[in-house]
Design goal:
Number of domains: 1
CATH topology: Ganglioside M2 Activator Protein, Chain: A
Distance between the termini: 34 Å
CATH class: Mainly Beta
CATH architecture: Distorted Sandwich
Number of helices: 2
Helix content: 10-25%
Signal peptide: 1-21
Largest sheet: 5 strands, antiparallel
Keywords: Signal
Number of strands: 8
Oligomer: single chain
Shape: globular
Radius of gyration: 18 Å
Length: 192
């Protein structure tokens, strides 16, 4: 096969992949609403003051806000539990259907360099003075961007309404609040 044919096939594949991935439209990012947590007392980290930014197509796919680190924690062997929920497009109730759970071991190096998971929405956006939450205080995250790369290994990218619940906790322990570093959830639509 010639280089031109290979190049053409690659371009067609890339355009098809991009077109089939849809447009992400973030509806909400918050601390987990279904957990009975006082985020200022019971959680090491919480998010606050989230704002939403539209892209050139008027879809919200960029977030800004603050993350408050209440307690510094030296656990280098943390894990993140992702629960993906999927509902029909246009659902108005909180999406809790079709749960799929995944557990990922995470450390600071993976958090910063592995762009294959939803944590990478935030890693490049976090304040470089405290990107791995190693100090207490209030810090900004700027231009956290959601795209298909971060979720396509977990779910099929197709039109619908989704929620991702992200629990960061000490591995090997129960999921109760005393072992939870943080819990956030974000709702988004994938639109044509």
């Amino acid at each position: 096969m010639s280089v031109k044919v290979l190049t053409l096939l690659f371009v067609v594949y890339s355009v098809t992949k991009i077109a089939s991935s849809g447009n992400f439209h973030i509806l909400n990012l918050s601390n987990c609403l279904d957990e009975k947590i006082d985020y200022q007392k019971d959680s090491d980290i919480e998010v606050k003051d989230v704002t939403y930014e539209k892209n050139e197509k008027s879809f919200v796919d960029i977030l800004h806000g603050k993350y408050i680190v209440h307690v510094h924690n030296d656990h280098s062997d943390s894990e993140i539990v992702f629960t993906f929920f999927s509902c029909p497009l246009g659902s108005t109730a909180p999406c809790k259907d079709n749960p799929k759970q995944y557990i990922e071991k995470i450390d600071c190096e993976r958090f910063l360099t592995d762009s294959t998971g939803p944590w990478y929405v935030f890693a490049p956006a976090m304040d470089q003075r405290n990107v791995c939450a190693t100090a207490t205080g209030s810090f900004d995250f700027t231009r956290a961007h959601l795209n298909s790369t971060f979720v396509e290994k977990y779910i099929d990218i197709k039109e619908g309404h989704y929620q991702i619940k992200v629990v960061h906790h000490v591995p090997g322990e129960s999921m109760d609040t005393k072992n939870m570093r943080s819990c956030i959830e974000f709702d988004f639509d994938i639109l044509p």
